Amino acid sequence: MRAGGVEIAAKCGHNLSFPQSFPNMTLTFEDFPPGRFGTFGPRHVTRDEILAFAAEFDPQPMHLDDEAASKSMLRGLSGSGWHLCSLMMRMMADGFITRAASLGSPGVDEVRWLSPLRPGDDLTLDVDVVEARTSKSRPGLGIVKFKCTARNAKGEALCEMTSPILIERRVGTA
Amino acid sequence: MWFFEEIEIGRRREIGAYNFTAESIKTFAAKFDPQRFHLDEDAGKNSLFGGLAASGWHVGSACMSLLVADSQRLAREAAARGEEVAVWGPSPGFRDLRWIKPVLAGDTVSFVNEVVDKRASGSRPGWGILTARTIGANQRGEEVYGITATAFVPMRGKSVRSVPT
């Protein structure tokens, strides 16, 4: 296990996204070298959650109605892709972002919805750092590009997201 | 709702506006993005955002809600004229999502959708893939959000389709 990294069993039921010997340490840019950062979850997704999100933000019949969903391309009730992305955000937040010196994100390079989110799915999230570089214009800042893959319990990839996050460098390193 | 054949590249629609109240910002953030600057006014003021800021996923989801509402309006109008209504398929994904400026409590963001490309699906006969760019601007006219998303759109005559409920 590398310094500042994570070692999490996908089935442990909670996130140990933090070196246990330094529970109050804030993760900085230096803690995100390229490579596998960790796997987070599982997060159980209920049918009620799927319906509630869809009713508010994505009220298409394929996300709300079993009959219509069975005739859709996805062949059965599926969660909104925006719900899945929002759940991935929550898993990243619980996993490490709320404990990192994060200044937010300028956007998302790409999201690919590969397979439908189904009621009752237990999601895990693989988080990889694909690139880590320091900001030229703001020396105290690093830009970490993450690739996150949400999977169901069978290990099927449901969604891949590639997104940069701005993270402060450790004091004294800039 | 249009079928693939009727959609013209360059077609532009104002799809509506979404008001981000402090309450809605905090409710979304508590569920999906519990970072301090999305949950607490003071933490927001002391952050780069300069105020209680909506989660970027809240902004994207709000944009989606307006896109769906607009498409359902179009479907109702087409059904009222007695026309066959196209039921669109899911989206394979999106790219170039940009959170350009913070969306703060009290902001109203208006979204405009423009078709930028369309092509026949290689893997699914009878379906096309539409690409559209949607831009959001706040009440001062400042662009705050942009996204380029794709969706499966049925071709005319693919099958008999019913009016969505």
Task: Give the secondary structure arrangement, pairings included.
The complex is a heterodimer of chains A (about 170) and B (about 160).
Chain A: E1 35-44, H1 47-57, H2 61-64, H3 66-70, H4 81-95, E2 107-113, E3 122-134, E4 141-151, E5 157-168
Antiparallel strand pairs in A: 1-3, 2-5, 3-4, 4-5
Chain B: E1 12-19, H1 22-32, H2 36-39, H3 41-45, H4 56-80, E2 93-99, E3 108-120, E4 127-137, E5 143-154
Antiparallel strand pairs in B: 1-3, 2-5, 3-4, 4-5
Looking at this structure, what is the CATH superfamily of chain B? Hotdog Thioesterase
Number of helices of chain A: 4
Q: Could you tell me the number of beta strands of chain A?
A: 5
Q: Stretches of chain A where pLDDT falls below 50 for ≥5 residues?
A: 1-22
CATH class category label of chain A? Alpha Beta
Named CATH topology of chain B: Thiol Ester Dehydrase, Chain A
Q: Structural class of the helices, strands and pairings of chain A?
A: alpha+beta
Instruction: Summarize the helix and strand pattern of chain B as letters.
Output: EHHHHEEEE
Number of helices of chain B: 4
What is the fold-level CATH name, i.e. the topology of chain A? Thiol Ester Dehydrase, Chain A
The gyration radius over C-alpha positions of chain A equals 18 Å
